[in-house]
Amino acid sequence: MVVGFDHFIEEFKTALSANQTITFFCHCKIRYSGRAESFLPIGDRVIIIKSDNTLLVHQPDGNNPINYMKPQSQITISKKEDYLLISSRNLQHKDYLDIEVQGVYSFMSYKLEDGQKLLLEGSEKDMSDMIYDNPELISKNFKPLSREEHTKYGFIDVFGHNDKNELIIVECKRYTASLSCVTQLRRYVEKIKELKGTKKVTGVLAAPKISPNAKKMLLDWKFKYKKINPPKRLERYNKDQKTLGEY
Amino acid sequence: MVVGFDHFIEEFKTALSANQTITFFCHCKIRYSGRAESFLPIGDRVIIIKSDNTLLVHQPDGNNPINYMKPQSQITISKKEDYLLISSRNLQHKDYLDIEVQGVYSFMSYKLEDGQKLLLEGSEKDMSDMIYDNPELISKNFKPLSREEHTKYGFIDVFGHNDKNELIIVECKRYTASLSCVTQLRRYVEKIKELKGTKKVTGVLAAPKISPNAKKMLLDWKFKYKKINPPKRLERYNKDQKTLGEY
DNA sequence: TACTACATCTCGCAT
DNA sequence: ATGCGAGGTGTAGTA
Prior knowledge:
Two copies of one chain form a homodimer. Chain A is an alpha+beta fold. Chain A folds into two domains: about 110 residues, Protein Yojf, Chain: A; about 120 residues, Trna Endonuclease, Chain: A, domain 1, CATH 3.40.1350. Helices cover about 25% and strands about 40% of the residues of chain A. Chain A starts with a helix and ends with a helix. At the A-B interface, β1, β2, β7, β8 and α3 of A face β1, β2, β7, β8 and α3 of B. β8 of chain A pairs antiparallel with β2 of chain B, so a sheet runs across the interface. Chain A binds a DNA duplex through α3 and α4.
């Protein structure tokens, strides 16, 4: 044990009440109960507690936290016979997390100030905007009428018609389209057929790639696939490739 | 600035080459390019680098990392005129992340040892197991034949028949069933009808709750809804309700 | 609040 | 490697 329990409790409580962000390395067991039940046997982890009482437990490998508690949870610490108990409870979500800390290797806390939002380009919304602004990507006769239609019609990415006034529904995916993408499109097409009382509705799936099964189902339903790359994808990679190619 | 750049670089490089887990608080800007493009303006964050070179950037609030890089990325650090540049590249995923560190508040690193896996109960698999072992939850005539049945159009949670040898397909959801759950079930039912050459196939959606639109679509397709709570759900909460927080 | 669909989704499993 | 679906999914947007 590198950090003494008494000293740790002191620091922890002070940081917690000051809404500092806390991180520490420790040797611990973890129990969770809520939407499911879980237990993580003894091992070394890094714990993060944020100013909004979000709690994250990370193992030394992997992307995702192995355990976590949502913001606005209550956090308490108490000393037991031979370990520290850190408890987090979220009564709203009915979530309970207990960390049995058997040793603390290192502790750190600081009041972090950050009000910034991430500026992100390349989402599915950007892709449907691109198609709306460049309808020839779908077909030379495609006339878009609306995008991101959030009505009882369904949430249709791009909605329009061709030069024969036949309706066209476009569903965008920024990754390989699978079976569920086809059923999603199918649901919209059927809803529009029902609402507009017409059978002349074409479904178009716009994606960089489509799986073989999805392609088969798409064709079974007389829908169309249009290979379209989402905007802003791999921009730097493509630039790098170009630069390398110049040498 | 609490930690000097030169000292930080030294510590950082040592920890990185020793595959220690690193966390530090800093004032920084972040750029990402890969599957999308993002920029996060200047602010305070906690950075975590794991032994497998996973990199996480967390703001002082919220559950999810605001930026991240997957395991097995290359990480480098270099000193610029008035900032530190931490670069992470993943050529396999074509991902690029740059952190422009303008100040370091606190730094910590340690070699964490952990080979444990999470033991989790209450997943959808547990729910389909429960139904398989207790078929009367679906109906008194239900005879399950298989679980996790793989078909070309997806895999079926519980598959069986009633006492008239009519096929029954059960799709389990551990949360509120929505439209997409109904289309998923519908896809399986249609595929089984085609494969078995029969029209007598019943789809059953087993979930604790179902949305109104999903319920309507379900009934339109002559499927059945069965209210079933997933196992282990809120075990501690329910116990607490009984024992008034004895735990 | 409930419902819907996206996500730099991630992850595991099976082909 | 790819396809498919679950996730203690989380998160945003809308009615």
